[in-house]
Design brief:
The protein has 323 residues and is an all-alpha fold. The chain has a domain of 77 residues. It is 82% helix and 0% strand.
Amino acid sequence: MNTIQLVLMIGGVFALLILGFVAVSGSNAAKASQRRLQQVRFRHSESTDAKVESQLKKAIAARKPKQFKRAGSNSRVEALAMRLDRSGKNWTLSQYAYVSIGITLFIAIILFIRTGSLPLSFAIGLFAGAGIPHFIVGQAIKRRTAQFNVKFPDAIELLVRGLRSGLPVTETLAVVAQEVPGPVGEEFKAIVERTKIGRTMEEALQETADRLDIPEFNFFCITLAIQRETGGNLAETLSNLSDVLRKRAQMKLKIRAMSSESKASAYIVGALPFIVFTMIWWINPEYVGAFFVDERLIVTGLGGLVWMSIGAFIMAKMVSFEI
């Protein structure tokens, strides 16, 4: 049995393990029953906070992405362009492509000089060139989303005060764009500018919601759209929404604090073998050089990577909470 057959066998076993995990980890009857009871409680509750929280959960569940495409995008290129736009940076597709190609060539050349193996160097360089820019853009999006969620309840409170003082919704949106700094002010300013050139407020809000892909802002758009159709006290509804968003932010911080130790342990345990292997290989390439030429060691290394991937996946699921 040669190396390719062993690799294919390991890949097949790994695929079977994934299918078995998916089959075993189906829907839990107890959790489903509890979820249905909670929905009934929300439906028949007289509390405004419970109703707002129920609608927020429905909005989040309804707007989860089903495919790789972003709302309004027709291809992966458009989806990537929207992702770069969500980062808040002035990055373009050409810059992203140049950086990816540059990282790929740089790492591939360095590894080829050290190992002399062209396929291995190109594979690692390609992985790094695709992964590092994607990771950087993802971190920029997370940072901007966190900044938006921090200031968004304050923006809603400012809207509530403006509505209670008698200002129309469009004027209060302009006040928020001027008074609230950061991403919130930028996005509300874009909404106001769209309304000035003839777009309806619903269209301007929906376009921003599609770009941001933030559940809290999605529910804010739904609230405004329903109020404009049915009427009602918008100021009180937005005030309740602001309170719910603040409670969600507090719960997220509690979860982050309680799971920080587990996440740090997972990062250290997952990264330590790669760091040690890289340091030994860089200092003394002959000591671990057989991993690149001996078929038995190659298969062993691939098997170790498979099991480490399974462990990392399990640890990620254990510290991942949805609220």
